Model the fold of this input.
Amino acid sequence: MMNLSSNAKRAFTVQSYSGSLTIEGVQIVELKRHHDDGGSMTELGRLVNGSHEGLAGITVRQVNYSEVESGVIKAFQSVGADKGPG
Done:
C-alpha cells in the first residue's frame, strides 16, 4: 500500500473493496460478452412471457446490448409466436 503524508492521511480516506455487500432482493448475474471483428454483444437477459407495452402482439424473449464498429451492419431475428427460429 502507498505511504501517505500526515496531511494526506487527514484529508483522504481509503475504501475497502474486500467484502461484497448484499442488498435484499438483489441478485448479481454474470454477463458474458461475445466479441467478433465487427464489435461485441452482451446478452442482458432471456425472458418468459415478456410483453412490451408499445409492441402489441410481440413477445420479448431476449434483451441484448451491442457495440458495433463503424461501417458494420448487424441484424436481428424475429420469431413468430407459432414458429420456431428460422
Observations:
- The two ends are 56 Å apart (CA to CA).
- Residues 27-81 form one domain.
- The chain has a mean pLDDT of 82.
- The CA atoms of residues 28 and 50 lie 21 Å apart.
